[in-house]
Amino acid sequence: MSLQTFPSLESLSEAVATEIVRLATESIAERGKFKLVLSGGETPKTLYHLLATKYREAIDWQHIHLYWGDERYVPHDDPSSNYWMARETLTDHVPIPEENVHPIETTFDNPEVAAKAYAAIVNTEMPFDLILLGLGDDGHTASLFPGPEFDPNDERLVIVTDSPKPPATRISLTIRAINASQNVFFLVSGRNKRDALENVLNDRKSTLPPSFVKPVGGAVKWFSTQR
Ligand code: 6PG
Fold it and tell me: Cα 170–183–173 angle (5° rounding)?
């Protein structure tokens, strides 16, 4: 595990973009594709914009596959959709083939059906090359929230969770699915995350969800702004 701190979200995002270009180039050279799981929320927007602009030509988009670590159970054209956010900041601006974009479908009446459908995709596609994750001020990651409902040993790959912040119904990869990756990058910005970050990185008894992230590839990198 490594922790790098940055003076700004812009410099943090530049560093992550550079790492993604490096990993994508290596993965495509070795295996013909780079399987990247996107995070939602506000923090990764700067990174996605950089990938679609400054680093656009450095990435072989024809061989990139995109997935989501979690999704709010809303239509894909809802402003709170993680898929919609990625479209606005990234996928609408790069020449990635449509068949390489694997969103979490939210059109089923029952979110449990959506979770099962995405679990089938995850089961086929894993292990991933890189999973991007964020950190909530309560210590959640993806849509795995601390509390009695959280089971780090859940055998399932994708589950329905109940978020304390709206939209309430979420679809999320489990710790098992997240750990089925070569690399995991946590992107953390905002003073309000400091306590959760301190807990995860320094409390050996931490039971916050990020504490159970131990990817098969062994590489967890933390990118955090200093304030
Ligand atoms: C989501 C994300 C969530 C996010 C954290 C941090 O769907 O919102 O997957 O886990 O990464 O809540 O969000 P911010 O980057 O907006 O602080």
Answer: 15
How remote is the CA of residue 152 from the centroid of ligand 1, in Å?
19
In whole angstroms, what is the distance from residue 227 CA to residue 210 CA?
Answer: 20
For residue 32, how far is its CA from the centre of ligand 1 (angstroms)?
A: 30
* Shortest-distance atom of ligand 1 to CA 133: 11
The arrangement of strands across the sheet holding 158-162 comes to 70-72, 169-173, 158-162
How does pLDDT run along the chain (227 residues), one tens digit per residue? 899 999 999 999 999 999 999 999 999 999 999 999 999 999 999 999 999 999 999 999 999 999 999 999 999 999 999 999 999 999 999 999 999 999 999 999 999 999 999 999 999 999 999 999 999 999 999 999 999 999 999 999 999 999 999 999 999 999 999 999 999 999 999 999 999 999 999 999 999 999 999 998 888 999 999 77
